[in-house]
């Protein structure tokens, strides 16, 4: 982002904080106070390579806010990505962040306490809180000199392959996306319209790699949904994600009892309490940092899900490598991963997680969340 763009965007909220001009992609920051947590942030609209088409929406950009927290010369990076269904905006995130007083905390290791403090400032605002959470984890990891997967006692070699998303689109664009996805071992296919079968048949003419069906609440009739589950099972589909509206518990439970494929919750599950509540309705959950408020809650969700016998999927929004690499620290706990959000944008200001022969590959030599500015 150039400085002119930043100066225009900062009026939406970041200008509420007094900044000095220097930093990431035109970011401006307050004067640093030694021994205190210094928070700064800047809007960064994500530009998508292709239109992101879902059953109920379409977009070419995603609002985003980049965050940094500094302590005595060490910087932690964070991010808030805001797809429409989260109900947050660039303005709401910047307004929330401008209300925070992190200088009262001298110890960045107090992540749980800082989360409790943020909840007293305002309820909800999960993406905004996620940005602070990621930056705190990055900062703490750098202080410890270790990446978070090691701090959590995980083995990076256990990370699964990631899927690559094929959105709802014209046949020509679907073909192009499948060609772009040739290095990947799994494809996530967006569904929820009348041409779902045509899209899958087109993909099957090009590749036989496993697919995942992401319906994004697009199905409404349970008999038709069950027929689709059987049809997809015959075409090497791994699971069906969020087939019905997130509040349609009755139809979801009915489908889960009869489906040959696992039924995975996405929009229906945000935090740990939702995992417990939905344990008898779904076969697994999709954990996303922007939904749950960051790495702290996501780690707890994964532990609880596994204790309840649920499958764990680790997902993301359209994000920079900051958010995706933070999520990837949890990848060794996941049965499936959908960590391609940074690959769907053209203006990523970070270098982080890599996909090597389809597999989520963490930067082992970088402490914290594992990203650097580029």
Low-confidence stretches: 1-23
Distance between the termini: 13 Å
How many helices? The count is 13
Give the DSSP E fraction (strand runs of 2 or more residues).
15-25%
Instruction: Write down how many β-strands occur, each being a DSSP E stretch of 2 or more residues.
Output: 19
Q: What is the helix fraction of residues, given as a range?
A: 25-40%
Largest sheet: 8 strands, parallel
Q: Globular, elongated, flat, extended or rod-shaped: what is the shape?
A: globular
How many whole angstroms does the radius of gyration measure?
Answer: 20 Å
Q: What structural class results from the helix and strand content? A: alpha/beta
Mean pLDDT: 90
Side by side, the strands of the main sheet go 8-9-10-11-12-13-14-15
